[in-house]
Amino acid sequence: MPYCPFCCRTHRRKRGEHVIPKWLAREFPDVKWDLTNRLTKYVRKGEKYINITTPVPCVTCDNGWMSELEKMSIPVLLPIIHGTPVTLSLPEQVIVATWFFKTAVMYDLHSERQAPRPLYFEDYEHRQLRDTLSMNPFYAIYLGKYTGEQFFIIQEDHSDLVFAKRSDLQPLGDSVRVYSLTLAIKHLVLQIFCAKTTLLSTVPLYARDWSAFYVQLATLPFRVDWPPPLNLDDSLIEHFIHRWSDIPSLPPT
Ligand SMILES: [Zn+2]
User: Fold this and answer.
1) Where are the domains of the chain?
2) Rounded CA gap, 183 and 156, in Å?
3) Ligand 1 centre distance from Cα of residue 71 (Å)
4) What is the pTM of this model?
């Protein structure tokens, strides 16, 4: 019997739950969907919709909190997808951030079986998402604007980050597995950056400054305006996707 990591119940499952929700496919009936996971070489293409699914969530979770989250997200996401400038209240930012975290978790579950590769998100994170609609506070979610030629991009990035003392370059412990997922749909760009370490809150990273290309969601009690000052076109989106792999491993202290 399959086991649902969100509610911890075993269940009978007949079909997979879509990672990219059907409402998006209905909104864009004429596009061709194309997924290529460059790390694992998993390829999936589709017309009308893209069939990337995971059989892991149970029907109760699927039709319950996941469906509610989708319904709340649609009116916030659609203007951004179509490129209409918006101002997002904090509750709207939380909705977008939670929706994208759920999407990242579902993509992770899908990739573990289909790619395959190890899961990044752990069972306590699945339960936390279902119970409180929240995630690890060190995860960051960024919202940008894409102006390139592709309609749909979903790409993940894994790397190992080693933190070290600047004075003598001695490592501050073992390497930390870092995970990032970027989703672009028409003009919407969402990116999550995950590192399970408290060091990130105290140690600055040497990294290229992309801050003009995104707004970070749900970190401060303010509204945010979208789009950000600069757009991501086809010459920049790949660098943006892989920006967390470009970090040198010796941040200052
Ligand atoms: Zn469940």
Assistant:
1) 3-158+177-196+210-241
2) 9
3) 18
4) 0.91
